[in-house]
Amino acid sequence: MGVDVPFDPTHRFATSWLLPPWLLFSVRLLISIYAFTTTFFIIGWNGTHHRLDASRASFSYFTNLTYWGLAFYFLFAAIHTFSHARTGTPLLSRWPRSLQALHSLFYTTIITFPILVTVVFWAILYSGPWFPVTFNAWTNVRLLPLANSVKNSPLIRSNIIIQTSQHALNSLFALLEILLPRTAPPPFLHLPFLILLLALYLALAYITHATQGFYPYGFLDPSAGRSGRVAAYAFAILAAVVVIFLVVWALVWVRKWATERVGGSGRRTKRRREYGGRARVEEGVVEDVEMRGYMTK
User: Fold this and answer.
1) Nearest CA to 67 among 187, 204, 186, 164?
2) CA of 228: how far to CAs of 30, 75, 116, 200, 234, in Å?
3) Considering just the CA atoms, what is the radius of gyration of the chain in Å?
4) Which 8-state DSSP code applies to residue 181?
5) How far apart are CA 134 and CA 131, in angstroms?
6) What beta strand segments (E) does the chain contain?
7) Mean pLDDT of all residues in 40-59
8) pTM to 2 decimals?
9) Contact indicator for 135, 117 with CB cutoff of 8 Å
10) How do residues 113-167 score in pLDDT, each as one tens digit?
11) Do residues 286 and 267 make contact, with C-beta atoms less than 8 angstroms apart?
């Protein structure tokens, strides 16, 4: 999956060029708590408003699956940053190589898919005035795209917070992970995996229709001779994810170049290194010389 050997020797995934480790840990943890709280609040709100079917159906929406991904990514990213701040070596460095590769791919998905969700929702799915109901507005910044067949029902009018929290803040969270860590640009080998994940979701959407009787998104409905339109949407989304990947790659490259080539290699941090079997904490500048940082640990 395009993972270097050795994997992340200077702990790019767990450190920031701008924030000290403990502050980066706090930011990531707070975002994870917010995402999980929002998700479980919506499930609870649906339960208290006789909408259990909506909670069950939510796992058929790409928006919701992506938001779950954000919540879990920031949780694990916070754990890795915490372990780095606490011991000098992130837990990620001690994981099996296969899990390290999957974490790298996980990072690529959370800086790509949330932006795709935002673009598709506001460009294709959303129609109507700004949200008159507070819960509905917050959800949109956060969460749930609704089937076209039910979006004008009274239940939907009381549900727009889901839309705002999942369709705007998600991209903000992705942008923070593009700008704050010291991560390198994602390998181009990840792009086929992103396309594969989208293809798997497309299969899930049609399984949902076969088992539950609805399409998560109206533009996936091929009935009434609209199969050509469905294909056009599919290829448009495919093109969009390629463009978004390239834009994200460029943003990460520019951030890395600006902070390490132009602005120096980062901020001064306390680093723990091993010398002759003895641990020593010293003040040092995080360097962009990967193997030197690795060999001196």
Assistant:
1) 164
2) 44, 41, 22, 20, 10
3) 21
4) B
5) 7
6) 268-275, 278-285
7) 89
8) 0.83
9) no
10) 999 999 998 888 776 555 444 455 556 655 444 334 444 443 444 355 566 677 8
11) yes
